[in-house]
Amino acid sequence: MDPYALKTLNAERRARRAVILVTDLGDGRDRIVREGDQVAGELGAAIAKAFRSGNSGSVEAEGGTFFLNVYLPQPRLLVIGAVHISQALAPMAKIAGYPVEIVDPRTAFATADRFPDVVLHAEWPEDVLSRQPLDSYTALAAVTHDPKIDDFALKAALDANCFYVGALGSRKTHAKRVERLLAMGATADQIARIHAPIGLDIGAASPAEIAVAIIAQAIQAFRSRGLESKEAAA
Amino acid sequence: MENSIYLDEARDPLIIAEGWMKDGKDVAIATVVETWGSAPRPVGSHLVIDAEGNFHGSVSGGCVEGAVVTEAVDVIDSGKAKMLEFGVADDTAWQVGLSCGGRIKVYVERLG
To answer: Which intervals of the chain form a coiled coil (chain B) (predicted)?
Structure first.
């Protein structure tokens, strides 16, 4: 591998940009292709497909064999609410490979004492998200139960096409939330993407069990992303 | 968000390889380029190796790393990339292979 290619690759990965390292398996030469770069011919078509699928693999093109290694940004989890569930969710998600940040303007909840080793913002979601916008490689779990805190973040997550959007609350609570989000300008299709009640149905009862259900559902959403649209197109 | 949280830098093989390179070490990068059947690590996974045989990352569940490290030290010496293939292990104890029954192809190249 070319040392410059490795440096570029790591810089792009640090900046949360999707890239493909293209290696000619015949002569070992490699180059970095960024998402959106124009590459002509059969190889270009294979590269475009690999960005969509996220799958690495070899391709025969232009008389050679090329290995396309796809590097998509690290999926991450933003939790709205420094609550009991979040105390269990933060370490679990981190171990599963989904770095976590927690946002809660209630300073009694968002304390370093309750959340050691977690990036914690004792601020309103509006302020945090204006500095650090959401993206499609981010999952958002809103667990405060408080519309004043959750609603803005949920709407922002839908608009940013976060790969997972979950909201804590019963069906009744969610029905009221749907009304508020519609009033905020969200479409019915967008709102249908919200997982509520939050978490896979594993009968979770304790805060830690609910955290398992949430991280499992976020993983499921990440690993099946794009599949719904493919099915719809088929 | 701080860049540091985007990657698990302490465990990321390619970040470690870049650090080794900056420290003036010779480095090889091994990459899973093809899998058949049940394979423990997906295509694209990396193992990075220095000339002393230190390594980070994985190309299998620990089944073939030892053999890849040995080959990688050769690749660092010669500068010539190698394509390695591993399949089901023989019944003979300690034979290198994948007990899960899969097959993998690993491309080993020198950095620089």
So the answer is: none
CATH code matching the domain that covers A76-223, chosen among 3.40.50.720, 3.40.50.880, 3.40.630.30, 3.40.50.2300: 3.40.50.720
Domain limits, chain A: 3-71, 76-223
- What is the domain partition of chain B in residue ranges? 3-110
A122 and A104 Cβ atoms separated by less than 8 Å: yes
Nearest-neighbour CA in chain A from B111: distance (Å): 5
CA–CA distance, B77 with A62 (Å, rounded to integer): 31
Predicted confidence pLDDT, tens digits, chain A (234 residues):
999 999 999 999 988 888 999 999 999 999 999 988 999 999 999 998 898 778 999 999 999 999 999 999 888 999 999 999 999 999 999 999 899 999 999 999 999 999 998 999 999 999 999 998 898 889 999 999 999 999 999 999 999 989 999 999 999 999 999 999 999 999 999 999 999 999 999 999 999 999 999 999 999 998 886 555 444 444
Per DSSP bridges, beta strands A57-61 and A30-34 are unpaired
Say what the ipTM of the complex is: 0.86
**Chain A residues within 8 angstroms (CB to CB) of chain B:** 1-3, 6-7, 9-10, 13-16, 23, 25, 28, 55-58, 67, 69-70, 73-74, 76, 97, 99, 101, 119, 132
What residue in B sits closest to A100 (Cα-Cα)? B5
CA B46 to chain centroid: 5
Please tell me the distance from the alpha carbon of residue A9 to that of residue A12, in angstroms, as a whole number: 5
Q: What is the DSSP letter of B5?
A: G
